[in-house]
Task: inverse folding
């Protein structure tokens, strides 16, 4: 039996808003049709006042850090935040697993249908097996810029990677400031397998470039504070983006995450090196940690392909892509809801190579349907109201 849905406005996830349309799903949730309504069909549709959109994509999350919710102060800066994560990460395993399960349920309630999830352990394995959410696990490796640790750390994280066998997964570097050239090479040689997707934290703070330009700055002191010698680290004289483009495979899709301090030239260089790069922004986490946002206008002017993530509950108040959209629009009124919804739907699906299944209302896909309440029209543009919320309807 076919189910039919309509609303005041429907965003197809890919192209933009339409009105007087009907979404038709078969019994399994696959889109059987998406077309203009006629008067007879209107009576057959379930009407949702407001807006209907496809399932939302969370392109970057750290599900395994969910037990750290509410543990840290905001606005401390990235270095202080990282020290807090190290200090508080280990806790009762049952609490960790319970928090992971609760966070997964929270994302389901927020209409999220796919997640690019960072893992350093296998703690999230059972939740991912049970969840209806599509997870792509990025097993993230680092060696504290210590070439002598590269072999052992690579084996440690390859074991974690093997633990997610049978699930979509990639073995990836954490960030330029935490991965030695030797470990970069080992990860590159290992490859991405069938997934063809890479991920890396990028340009999270000004100290990242400082490390590579001069060999100094906060990251050097950060590693030394944990007892790691930086005597053998040689600054390249180029920025951290040059480290990424020099060490990673340009033939694979790349999720560059955060990009808080990225400038126009760096965006241009990254896209020229790898046209498959997707820039994933986690605005609430950026505000939580650094109290700043990326310059979104620079990315739009460069026609950069954007997606949205939540980061973890250690650096965010909730796991909601709607909340991330609201933050972007609150501080960038020149951006439209129509455009940012593309980031949250189709662009996120493309980032995770799920564009043939999720992200838009197109025949044969199974994207899910979300109802967004409290939407208003002002001066010819749709806006989210102060009480806007997501309700999954299929």
Result:
């Amino acid at each position: 039996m076919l189910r039919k849905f309509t609303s005041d406005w429907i965003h197809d996830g890919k192209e933009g808003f339409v009105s007087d349309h009907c979404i038709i799903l078969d019994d399994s949730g696959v889109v059987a049709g998406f077309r203009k309504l006629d008067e007879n069909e209107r009576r057959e549709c379930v009407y949702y006042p407001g807006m209907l959109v496809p399932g939302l994509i969370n392109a970057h999350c750290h599900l395994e850090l969910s037990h750290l919710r509410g543990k840290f102060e905001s606005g401390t800066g990235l270095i202080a935040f990282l020290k807090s994560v190290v200090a508080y990460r280990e806790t009762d395993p049952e609490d960790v697993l319970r928090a992971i399960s609760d966070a997964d349920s929270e994302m389901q309630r927020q209409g999220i249908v796919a997640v690019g999830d960072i893992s350093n352990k296998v703690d999230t394995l059972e939740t991912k097996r049970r969840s209806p959410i599509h997870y792509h696990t990025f097993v993230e490796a680092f060696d504290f810029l210590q070439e002598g640790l590269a072999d052992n750390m690579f084996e440690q994280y390859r074991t974690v990677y093997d633990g997610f066998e049978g699930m979509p997964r990639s073995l990836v570097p954490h960030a330029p400031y935490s991965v030695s050239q030797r470990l970069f090479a080992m990860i590159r040689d290992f490859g991405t397998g069938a997934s063809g997707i890479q991920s890396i934290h990028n340009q999270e703070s000004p100290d990242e470039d400082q490390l590579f330009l001069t060999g100094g700055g906060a990251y050097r002191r950060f590693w030394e504070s944990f007892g790691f010698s930086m005597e053998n680290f040689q600054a390249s004289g180029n920025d951290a983006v040059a480290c990424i483009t020099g060490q990673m495979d340009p033939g694979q899709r790349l999720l560059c995450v955060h990009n808080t301090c990225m400038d126009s030239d760096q965006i241009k260089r990254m896209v020229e090196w790898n046209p498959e790069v997707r820039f994933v922004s986690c605005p609430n986490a950026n505000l939580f940690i650094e109290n700043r946002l990326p310059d979104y206008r620079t990315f739009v002017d460069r026609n950069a392909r954007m997606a949205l993530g939540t980061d973890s509950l250690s650096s965010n108040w909730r796991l909601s892509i709607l909340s991330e959209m609201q933050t972007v629009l609150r501080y960038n009124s020149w951006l439209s809801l129509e455009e940012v919804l593309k980031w949250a739907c189709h662009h996120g699906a493309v980032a995770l190579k799920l564009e043939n299944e999720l992200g838009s209302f197109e025949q044969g896909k199974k994207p899910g349907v979300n109802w967004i309440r409290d939407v208003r029209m002002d001066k010819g543009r749709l806006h989210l109201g102060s009480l806007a919320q997501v309700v999954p309807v299929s």
Remarks:
- The chain has a mean pLDDT of 95.
- Residues 56-199+247-351 form a domain with the TIM Barrel fold (CATH 3.20.20.140).
- The radius of gyration is 21 Å.
- The CA atoms of residues 143 and 179 lie 5 Å apart.
